[in-house]
């Protein structure tokens, strides 16, 4: 499972697509002014990048975080469909803006290329899923999506069904001294997904330690609902 | 695939059902007054029609638009479940009111009969879907559901995952001079569906041209996520 | 289909799990104070119980209602993911509080044990589902979740797709003199589920009669969308 098409010949806006999360990347070099007025963007750019998926918000946001670090682009909208094709979580719609179409296309491509890494700590079973994310230095995508302070370490600890996320959060926070940014649950801070997610920030070592501790208890709990959860790509958080 | 049951012998309220979108039509000749107080209707009628589906809001709304044109009935509620049985879109709950049960039953039947037409430009693939709708003259259902001016042409251009809808909207609006009513996206104007949808109004020829242009780019983009999207019924927008 | 694991050896927080609705029960003996501040609980307890499912909110809430009657615990949060693994309804996240971990573990276990009863009047087909619930004496879970007066009889009458619930509600209310607490529909009082649900209260005999009447018409209507709906466990409402 990997990027299966990167043809740019279909339509000029197409950048690339990936089977991972059914993710498609596009670039509009000069967006229609009336459409731009109807979009919910934090800042108006005429060069627009679009990253859109059925499954996974966190992985695409983390992938985009690397992309905006590497290019002269900004995340201007993060939207949260309740999707995952019948699963318990979200898809995502990410809009980015830039001054040059080649920058924006490049950012979208970087994000697509990062998906096999950022899906590394997504663990699925028939009953639910876990998601863990970590970055030593949060940038604009993680800031806009999760309220994380830019430049500091950030961690995401998520379990579904959502109650598993409550216990994962408790274990994670008790493990290391970290700042709790928020706890998202089905009726608060999600699009009614069945996820419990704690967002943490702080010292890089502490955040990583907390994420790993949350993962450990989450894997054991989710396994109680049947099969052992498995990741489709190698774990990147060690 | 078509209407498989139109028996009225089951319960008096039953009007008809269709496999298309798992749609059921009913009529309550004299609704309980206390229940009516608890419903969220724009106008209180005692004769109530109900059209309810698992998959597809747009097609049922367009079908009901024809039904209210043909009968002495009014749409009094449009509700948007996040459904499609694991897909990226909505189902719908439509309530209509009338003065005579036979009018209301007739309206519900007209709507059910129109579904094979209004599903004609719904294109599905494993990764997502597209929906296109067009009417030369919007009536009460389209007005209440989408804010379209009655009596004018109306078009709906929708893609899922939602980012595809952004590019479809941009292409459509650039193609012809139309009024943009709104752009609905996962976190704005939907029930967290994974759809990007532009609603347009204006001159009949221009709206039709814009819809067709949006469809063309949408079919190419969605095909990049794997298989070619297909419609289950013949396209009606030419 | 029944509880398949009740091992407590996995992690200390684990109480039990059930295949029924993919439901997991846990207990945190001393919740982290910062996490507690970020949870949305009506009252702060340090001993926390968690019941979390992918499918079914009503059955878990009714099961928890029995559990809080039987133990010194309180329901402090009810949250509504839009789930059921691609179905038309909700999952649930229930948090309870207590003064003693053994009380809380016992309450969670009682709730898990009640699931095969409270799923008795959940009827599924490929097109949708029905749910009926009844208690002669509502307690804290039903009160917090549905606004039912404690100590009085309570009934829940739900159909999906949601239009079926409208007709079920009309029939039920006309059958017996009951108080209508609320009518929940896709855009009002649900997490965009495709359910129409009337919540009723009053005299025990009247509530039961109304629930049974709603069930009868619901079974006939849902059957019109294809196959006869079936329950996985014996009906408990007679």
TrEMBL record, chains A, B, C:
Keywords: Bacterial microcompartment
InterPro entries in the record: BMC_CP (IPR044870), BMC_dom (IPR000249), CcmK-like_sf (IPR037233), EutL_PduB (IPR009193), PduB (IPR030984)
GO MF assignments: structural molecule activity
Cell compartment(s), UniProt: Bacterial microcompartment
Pfam families: BMC (PF00936)
Name of the protein: Microcompartment protein PduB
Gene Ontology annotations for the cellular component aspect, listed alphabetically: bacterial microcompartment
Domain BMC circularly permuted positions: 14-125, 126-233
Keyword ATP-binding included in the entry's annotation: no
Keyword Transcription: no
Top-level taxon: Bacteria
Cross-referenced Gene3D superfamilies: 3.30.70.1710
């Amino acid at each position: 499972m990997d990027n299966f098409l990167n043809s740019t010949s279909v339509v000029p806006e197409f950048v690339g697509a990936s089977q991972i999360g059914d993710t498609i990347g596009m670039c509009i070099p000069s967006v229609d002014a009336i459409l731009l007025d109807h979009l919910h963007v934090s800042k108006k750019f005429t060069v627009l990048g679009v990253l859109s998926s059925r499954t996974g918000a966190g992985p695409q946001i983390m992938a985009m975080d690397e992309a905006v670090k590497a290019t002269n682009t900004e995340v201007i909208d993060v939207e949260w469909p309740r999707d995952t094709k019948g699963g318990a979580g979200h898809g995502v719609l990410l809009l980015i803006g830039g001054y040059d179409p080649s920058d924006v296309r490049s950012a979208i491509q970087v994000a697509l290329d990062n998906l096999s890494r950022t899906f590394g700590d997504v663990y699925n079973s028939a009953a639910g899923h876990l998601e863990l994310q970590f970055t030593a230095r949060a940038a604009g995508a993680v800031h806009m999506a999760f309220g994380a302070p830019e430049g500091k370490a950030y961690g995401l600890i998520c379990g579904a069904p959502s109650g598993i996320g409550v216990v994962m959060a408790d274990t994670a926070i008790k493990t290391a001294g970290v700042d709790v940014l928020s706890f998202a649950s089905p009726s608060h801070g999600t699009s009614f997904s069945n996820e419990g997610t704690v967002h943490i920030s702080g010292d890089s070592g502490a955040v990583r330690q907390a994420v790993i501790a949350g993962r450990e208890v989450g894997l054991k709990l989710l396994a109680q609902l049947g099969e052992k959860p498995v990741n489709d790509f190698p774990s990147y958080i060690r």
